[in-house]
Amino acid sequence: MDALTPPPQYTSERSNADAPAGTTPPLQLQVPEYSLPTSFTIGAQTTHPFVQVSQLKNHLALLHAFAELKLKVEALAPSPDMSILHLPENKERRWTVFVGMAVERFERWCKALPPTTKYDKGIATILPPIDVIMVWHAYLLNPGWYAEDLARVDGLGGLARVSEGFGNSLSDELGDIACKPSPERIDNWTRTTGTPFDPFESLTHLVTKELACPKCRAIVYAPSMTEVGDGYLQAGFSFACEACGFEITRDTLALRKFVTDLSASDAGKVQDVMAETLLPRLANSG
Ligand SMILES: [Zn+2]
Questions:
Q1: Higher local confidence (pLDDT), 243 or 274
Q2: Strand partners, 212
Q3: Measured in angstroms, how far is the CA atom of residue 239 from the centroid of ligand 1?
Q4: Which of 20, 72, 159, 163 is most exposed, with the fewest beta carbons within 10 Å of its own?
Q5: Could you tell me the distance, in angstroms and rounded to a whole number, from the CA of residue 166 to the centre of ligand 1?
Q6: CB 110 within 8 A of CB 157
Q7: Span from the CA of 252 to the centroid of ligand 1 (angstroms)
C-alpha cells in the first residue's frame, strides 16, 4: 500500500459477545491489514513519520503501567503499617502522598546519575522503578521547562544524558523493561539512591525529608507524614526549625529559593539566569 491509498473501510462485525445464546459463530476480531505510509504530505512539505508503531505500543504500555500503579495505591487496604505511616485513608490524598514520595525518589536518582556517561547501548540497567518513570514522564510532558532545567541546573547533567537513551529505548523494549526489573537494574537503583526499588517498601524507608532552614540554613529533618497532616508530603506542611524556631512551610521554602536565585552572581552563564526566563531569551534572540 502506498501513501495515497486510504486505509480499508471499517465495518462493524458481530463478535461472540453478542451472539445468540447457544450458538458459537467464528470469532471475527481480526484487524484489517494495513501498512503505515512511509511519508506524509503537510502543506507543501513531505515528511517522514515522527513516531513508529513500536514507540506508540511502548508508550501505551508505560501509560498502562502508571494506571495499574494508581489502582494498586488506591486499593491499599487499611493496615497497622498504614496507620503507623499516617497514610491517608482517602484514596485521592493517598495517591497525592505517593506521588510526592515518587518525586523525592526521582530527585535522588537525578543527583546520583553520572553527568558524562553515554547510553549508546540503551538504559535497561539504569531505568528507575515505575513510580519514578511516571514522574520523569510527567516532567517530559512540559518539554520547554524540561529543556530549560537541563540547561540551567548544574545537577541535571546526568538526566540530560539519560534522556537521550530514554527516547531511543521507546522504539525498543521500554514497555517490557519498565515492568520487569532485572537484578542488575534493581541493584543499580538501590546502590545509587539508597532507597528500596519497590515504591511501597520505600514508603516505610523515606520517613523524613532533609531540608535547609530558609532562615538560618541549619539542616533539619522534617517527617514525611504526621498524624495531624503537617508532614512534608502532606497538604498542610509546617515544621519548626530546631535551631531557630522559624516555621518552615512550602511558601517559606519557595521564597528562600527565589531570593537565592535572585541574589546569585551573574557571570553571564546559562546557569545564572532565573527559572522560566531562559527560553524566552532564546526565542527573542532567534
Ligand atoms: Zn532555622
A1: 243
A2: 219
A3: 10
A4: 20
A5: 40
A6: no
A7: 11
Domain ranges of the chain: 53-203, 208-285
Q: Are 206 and 194 in contact (CB under 8 A)?
A: no
Q: How far is the CA of 264 from the centre of ligand 1 (A)?
A: 21
Distances (CA, A) of 235 to 97, 207, 214: 9, 16, 19
Residue 9 has pLDDT above 80, yes or no: no
**Could you report the per-residue pLDDT of 89-117, keeping only the tens digit for each?**
888 888 999 999 999 999 999 999 988 88
Cβ burial of 176 (10 Å; 0-12, 13-18, 19+) is exposed
Per DSSP, which regions of 188-274 are E strands? 208-212, 219-223, 239-240, 247-248
Residues whose Cβ atom is located within 5 A of ion ligand 1 = 213, 215-216, 218, 241, 243-244, 246
Looking at this predicted complex, what is its ipTM?
Answer: 0.98
Helix (H) or strand (E) holding 192: helix 183-193
| Whole-number Å distance between alpha carbons of 281 and 270 | 11
Coil vs helix vs strand at 32: coil
| Ligand 1 centroid – CA 219 distance (Å) | 8
Q: Angle formed by the axes of helices 130-140 and 143-152, to 10°?
A: 100
